[in-house]
Each structure stands twice: as C-alpha cells, then as structure tokens.
Specification:
Number of domains: 1
Structural class: alpha+beta
Helix content: 10-25%
Largest sheet: 9 strands, mixed
Number of helices: 4
Number of strands: 9
CATH architecture: Alpha-Beta Complex
Length: 236
C-alpha cells in the first residue's frame, strides 16, 4: 500500500528491476474504533509470517475486493457524503456499484478476520451469515501500493465506532488471516510493528479525532500514491 500528499513521504525502497509492476487491485481496510475508555483504541492483528504481502506486521482488518462483493445483500445504505468521496477518482463516477462493493468488502473482511459481524443476522444469506450495515462507515483514506512490490493494492480505509455498530470490544477472535488481535491506543502504537502506511494513516486519524471526535462523514480524505518515484499526498 502507499500514501499520497503534497510532498514526498518516506517510503520503502522500490524494486528497480525492469519487471513490470502488477496493476493495483481494489482493497478495503477498516479501523474499528473503541471509544469506551479514556482514549480511543483501534483494532489491529498480525499478518501470518507466510503471507507474501506485509508478513509479521500488525495491520487493520481488511483485504482485496472479491467479485462476490458486488452482489452481497446489505442493509443500511452508505452515507451519501461517503459515497461521493469514494466515487471521486474513478472514470465512471456516476456508478455506485464499485464504491459500494469496496465498502462491503471492508465489513466482509472484518467478519472473516475478526469474527465481527456489523449488521443483523440473516441465516438465509448464502454469502454471509449477516446483512452488512454500511450506515456508520466513515471514509478515512485511500492508498495505492507503490510500483516494485510483488502485490499492489488500491486500498480504501474506513473507520467505524464499536458503539454505533453494536460491537462488543471483548468479542474478538484470531483467524487464519490475522493473529494476535488486540486493541491499541491510537496515540501509542509502541507495542506493535506497523507498516509505514498504517502509521501514516493512524496519524491522519489522530488529527481527525482531535479536530472533531465524531469524525464527520463529509471530511476531506487523504489519498496516498507514488508519482515519478515520489510519495505524494492529495485530498479527495
């Protein structure tokens, strides 16, 4: 993954070989936030050592968008301001199917990696045992993995408060995808090793919480990517 901005940001060395870099694939990640204590905590888990992409690092639950995400039934529409931000930057911006599928991927991955279902149970659903509720998702950041990595993702980061989603912070379980699931203070991440882009986006989250702890839906969204070998930060 990568980050974008108005100027260069420290980024990992790029592969300088002439091997063609893979095209970024849509992905989604979710910052599940617990504000029940004195400081806000965010859920992270450690990627398995066998993973090609970011092994042994703690990350937010998430993963690539699957084909089935387009046809996932859901309840609770995505907030209009979030939808408009998600559509920014795509050629066919009038379509809602792709941004909605990305948001649905975030909640599907949260269930698959942490056994957390956001939405009512639906035993008749053949794809998930619940109906994903998109209502309270905030769009926080977008980041594209720089060229030179064996796998590249165009990742959209969402935030969700546990109290708004009806999630019990104590009811989390490790999975084959994420080990050592834990809550960390957004102001102190010293206990875990995070990818550079995760630390950057956590910095954006801290600034947003300080500005308005409710995380308004229509806030500008940082977009991180690489242009001519330089890390860039723009706003959507």
């Amino acid at each position: 993954m990568t980050a974008s901005g108005d100027g260069p940001v420290n980024s990992p060395p790029l592969n300088t070989s002439k091997t063609r870099s893979p095209r970024p694939r849509d992905a989604a990640s979710i910052m599940l936030l617990d504000r029940s204590q004195a400081t806000v905590r965010v859920l992270v888990g450690r990627r398995h050592k066998a993973h090609v992409f970011m092994p042994n690092l703690h990350v937010f639950p998430g993963g690539r968008r699957d084909r089935d995400d387009y046809r996932l039934p859901f309840c609770g529409h995505i907030h209009p301001a979030v939808l408009e931000r998600l559509k920014t930057g795509y050629k066919h911006s009038a379509s809602e199917s792709r941004p909605r599928a990305i948001a649905l991927a975030a909640l599907r991955e949260l269930y698959e990696e942490a056994s957390i279902a956001v939405g009512p149970k639906d035993c008749g659903n053949t794809l998930l045992p619940f109906l994903p509720d998109l209502t309270n998702l905030r769009y926080m950041a977008r980041a594209i993995t720089p060229p030179g990595h064996p796998r590249r993702f165009d990742t959209h980061f969402f935030a969700l408060f546990t109290d708004e989603a009806g999630v019990d912070p104590d009811d989390i379980r490790d999975s084959r995808e994420l080990e050592d699931l834990r809550w960390i203070d957004v102001n102190d991440v010293s206990e875990v090793q995070l990818p550079d882009i995760t630390e950057i986006i956590l910095g954006d989250l801290r600034a947003s919480l300080q500005s308005d702890a409710s995380l308004p839906f229509g806030r500008p969204v940082p977009f991180y990517y690489t242009r001519h070998g330089r890390f860039v930060r723009d706003l959507l």
